[in-house]
Every structure is written in C-alpha cells, then in structure tokens.
Amino acid sequence: MAEERANAESADVAAVADVANVADVDRVLVGRVAARVKGGLEVETLEGLAFCSLRQADDRGGETASALIGAERDFAVIGQRPDGVLLLSRRRLLDRERRDRLAEAGDRLTEGARVRTRVVRLSEHGVTVVLLEGPDAGLEGHVRREELAHGRPPRPSDVLRVGEEIEAQVRRFDATTGALALSRRAVLPEPWREAERELRPGATIEGRLLRATEFGAFIEIRPGVEGLLHRDEVPDAAWPRLEEATAAGAMMCLLVVSIDAGRRRAELVPAPAGLEPGERFVWPALRRGDVLEAPVERSGRDGVWLWLGPGRHGFIDRRELGRDEVPEAFPLGTLLRVEVVLLERGGRLAQLSRRKAQRRDERDAVNDWRRRNAPVALNTLGALLEKARAERRG
Predict the structure, then answer these.
(1) For residues 68 and 36, what is the distance between their CA atoms, to the nearest angstrom?
(2) Which fold would CATH assign to domain 2-94?
(3) pLDDT band at residue 9, thresholds of 50, 70 and 90?
(4) What's this model's pTM, rounded to 2 decimal places?
(5) How many CB atoms lie within 10 A of CB 20?
(6) Which CATH number fits domain 191-270: 2.40.30.170, 2.40.50.140, 3.30.420.40, 3.40.50.11260?
(7) Which of the four, 99, 110, 223, 314, has the lowest number of CB atoms within 10 Å?
(8) Closest to 326 (Cα-Cα) out of 306, 307, 301, 350
(9) Torsions phi, psi for 371 (to 5 deg)
(10) Cβ(247)–Cβ(211) under 8 Å?
(11) Which residues, 6+ apart, have CB-to-CB distance to 381 below 8 Å?
C-alpha cells in the first residue's frame, strides 16, 4: 500500500507538470472504472483509457477505490502523461461539490438554528451526530460533553445511545472546513424555570450534596439546579458529619424555603423530622405585633438570634432586650418571649423586641387585676337580689 501511494503521488506530480500540455484542464469526462492497477485506477472514457491515482480517486483516500470498479463516475481532467494518457481526478469534483454544499449550508446553519440529528458515535468528550433532514442531511456535527445536558457534564453514554435521534441547536458552523458545533442542552427545558414553577416554598425534596464551603453546602436538587443550605441552618455538632456526607455525594431530605429562577438561587433547610419527599410544610402565620416564645440560636455583641422554625429566624437588637439584660445572659436554647416588630425577606426574618413583650405582659397583668377587682355595680334590683342570694348561700 505504501508503494502504491508513493506511485500515486509521483503520478500527481507528473500531472501537475503536464497540465500546460492539455487543453481544457478541469473539464469533466464520464468514465467507467475498468480495473485496479499499480498506483490507481484504469478508467475507460470516450477519449480512450485514462488513469486516476488512488489519492485522486475519492475524498477519503484509497478506502473506497476498489468499490468503484465497474462504476461510472464523473472525473475532472487534471493533466496528461508523456504517453498521452489523460490523468483524471474524482476527488477534485467531490471537493468542489463539497465546497459548494458547505457554502450553501452556511446560509442555513446559522447560530441558533435547530436541526434533527442521529447519534453515530460516542466518546468521552462528546457525541458525533449526522443531520437527518433537508439539503444538509448527512452532514456530521459534534456535541461536546458540556453541551449534552444542564448541570454537571454527564458521561455521553449515560444520556444517549448510538442510533438515537435528538434535536440540537447550532452553536457554530465553519463553511470552509465543515466543522459543525451543536448543543443539545440549548433545546432542553430551562431547569430553573421548571424548578421555580414546580418547587414552591414548603416543598419537601431530596437533593444530592455536592460541595461544602465555609458559608454552607451546595446541593443539586435537579439537573442544572443547585441550592444553598446555609451554614447557620446546621447545628455546629452536625456540620462535620454533613461535610463527610458531601464528600460521598450523599442524598439529603430538604425543605425549599425560596427559589428564584431569575437570580438562579434556591434557599434550603433540613426538612423537619417526619416529613417525606413530596409532602408540604406550611409555616404558621406570623404578623407584626404577635407575641411568641422561641429558643435562642446564638448571641453576639449586637443582640440575640432566635429560631422561629425551618428557614425562619428572628433578631433582638440589644437595645430591645429587657431592663439590665445583655445578650451574653442567654445561652443556646433559652426560651424568650418576644413581640414581632417587623417582618423582612418574605417573613423569613423577623425583627423582635423583648422589651415590648415585657411591657405588654405588664399591661395585660394590670388589666387582668383590674377586671378581677373592679367594684360590682348595684344599681338594679336584679343585682341586689343576686347579691342577697349569694350572701345567704355563703
């Protein structure tokens, strides 16, 4: 084979040298491939026997040369040997057709165009497909691994198989080389919009732990959708175990606190005990002026944080503590009675006042004492009779 290709190359060089001796170079002749000879193919034409080297037989080298024997094909004249035999090229016509076809395809395969394809090869780096419809049918394209699906790039063999038909979007097309880059991900439903529509606040779901950072853990709740479990939502004692679970890619039951497709953010908290994926959690109504009791989460110089429920927290500014009270006086878990002063972040954060709750309790106690000790009105005959009966019974 190496010797045949060497002879073919010599024939091509001779053809170039003798081009000037042939009239109408590049004119097209119809020829029947008669036989395989040393270095190429013998072709019968109306102008006699001609020769086509292996390199000029097809645009894929000598792979299909033997299959051409007995077939009629168009050939371009590229030269003439000293013995008068015409030198032909099928490859030149195929290249010309290919260039014309690619130039026309460039007008159709613009960025964003959608095409129907069939998978023909899978590799670690992506998928090779062929176009199925229209004048560009048969043209090959490539879908890179990261363009197969939303989220983390999957293994191609995990999402597709050879022979499967898929829709894709054109990312880039080079009309000179024919390189066609496609994206399957671009035609799939936008995962954040679907997640926002289906996963309302209060939804209980399962998510896969992806990575832990100093401010929380990122969790995949759907392909292409990641939420944040904030560090403050996990007890200090449980955080090391969660980091270990994250390294193993473990699943976790979670409660959706909020989801914003526009900002691509989802706030998550551990699901309350007893809730299963698919069930819903309803937060108790919370209004300004409500008085409630809640446990201390943590204390700092500025004030005290209380836990008001899954994903719901309250803050007492140190100026809103009771008389002579300081934040450091309240250890973790201490129940404090407070009044809701202001609701923020859709009710997930409450500004609280212990001072106002104490004043309200004091007023309620005084009013209750007054009601119990108020003088009885004796300005009616019925009241006098009732008092007399009560005294006799006593």
Answers:
(1) 9
(2) OB fold (Dihydrolipoamide Acetyltransferase, E2P) (2.40.50)
(3) very low
(4) 0.57
(5) 10
(6) 2.40.50.140
(7) 110
(8) 301
(9) -65, -40
(10) no
(11) none
